[in-house]
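Lab notebook, bench 4. Still working through the backlog of constructs that have no structural model yet. Next entry is a single chain of 159 residues. Request: give me the structure tokens for it.
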Amino acid sequence: MENNNSITAKLHEKIFRMKKKTLNTLTITIDVLMFIVFILTLILRTNLMFGLFWIFIILYFIVDMMNVMHWDYDGLKADQNKASKVIGSFRDITTVTIVFSGFFYLIVIFLDNIKVISMANIYVVAIMYILLSVAQLFNHLSIRNGLKENKKLAKKYSK
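Model written out:
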């Protein structure tokens, strides 16, 4: 059991200590690749492209979670009494967007399994891509606003 906890701790430490430039490069790369796969899926409509699209959706989730975890760690390093409001609002927004994105993804998989809809449907793919892009946009805006608020708090309390 301890071995499992140490693997988790090492993974968290790798994400938290990742350089912001590396994380930003990874995010941009996955976003561009996701867009390319989305466009190719709409054009080609092959089983390979649909499968690749759904694999990239998982990578999209993972990178978005890494961004949120990384910023959350930076936010926690601030004075917790003074920055708790900023951190709390950041966590609320990102939690809601990530939970709804994951929930929608699971609904699509469930409906595909009971043959109500198909994951190889162009409309399902387009709606999923749009919703995840909007969720990721909200997360990035939340991170940006949280950073601004933390900078304001730091300036206010450092005087």
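Notes after review: Residues 19-158 form one domain. Residues 19 and 46 are 37 Å apart (CA to CA). Flag for follow-up if needed.
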